[in-house]
Amino acid sequence: MIALVDTCVWSLALRRTKTDLNREQEKTIKSLEELIVEGRVRLLGVVRQELLSGIRHKPQFDLLARNLRSFEDVELSIADYEEAAALDNQCRSAGLTGGTTDFLICATAMHRDWGIFTVDQDFVRYGKVIPLKLMAT
Q1: pLDDT higher than 90, residue 136
Q2: Cα angle vertex 11, ends 16, 81, to 5°?
Q3: Bridge partners, residue 22, by sequence
Q4: Residues 6+ positions from 97 with CB-CB distance below 8 Å
Q5: What pTM was estimated for this model as a whole?
Q6: Where would a tag sit more exposed on the chain, N or C end, judged by fewer CB atoms within 10 A?
Q7: Do 101 and 47 contact (CB within 8 A), yes or no?
């Protein structure tokens, strides 16, 4: 299955030092590495932007940007954005709120029948209202 990778997973792998990781985080990074080798990873442009935002040192920014260029952005359609808004509305009606990026990830994955690779527990909550395929580490 194709994996649409959330910002939190990329951040663990690309912005944290190995000495700062616990066993579960190490397992997540290993799973990401396996997905990359298998060619099953996909990246949204907005996730790329989130990863690059807040980096204060230009050499570090340039290195991360260069590494991320190995992954093309998923081409999104009007339907993806409309579905993201509809999913947000559906979750709000059930008492759940979330971020714009989260619902764009949900809509993109659902339209393409992809899994979402994340460690963000918000997606577990969304999955109680909308039919998500979450990928375990």
Answers
A1: no
A2: 170
A3: none
A4: 91
A5: 0.93
A6: N
A7: yes
pLDDT tier for residue 115 given thresholds of 50, 70 and 90:
very high
Instruction: Give 116's strand partners.
Output: 4, 134
Tell me how long the chain is: 137
Which residues are CB-neighbours of 122 under 8 A, at least 6 positions away? Answer: 98, 99, 102
From CA 96, how far away is CA 26, in angstroms rounded?
A: 30
Mean pLDDT for 77-106 is: 97
* 128 class by beta-carbon count within 10 Å (0-12 exposed, 13-18 middle, 19+ buried): exposed
- Write out the two tokens for 115: 């899994």
Q: SS3 letters for the chain?
A: CCEEECHHHHHHHHHCCHHHCCHHHHHHHHHHHHHHHCCCEEECHHHHHHHHCCCCCHHHHHHHHHHHCCCCECCCCHHHHHHHHHHHHHHHHCCCCCCHHHHHHHHHHHHHCCEEECCCCHHHHHCCCCCCCEECC
- How far apart CA 29 and CA 14 sit, in angstroms, is 9
pLDDT exceeds cutoff 90 at 61: yes
> What is the structure's pLDDT at 15?
73
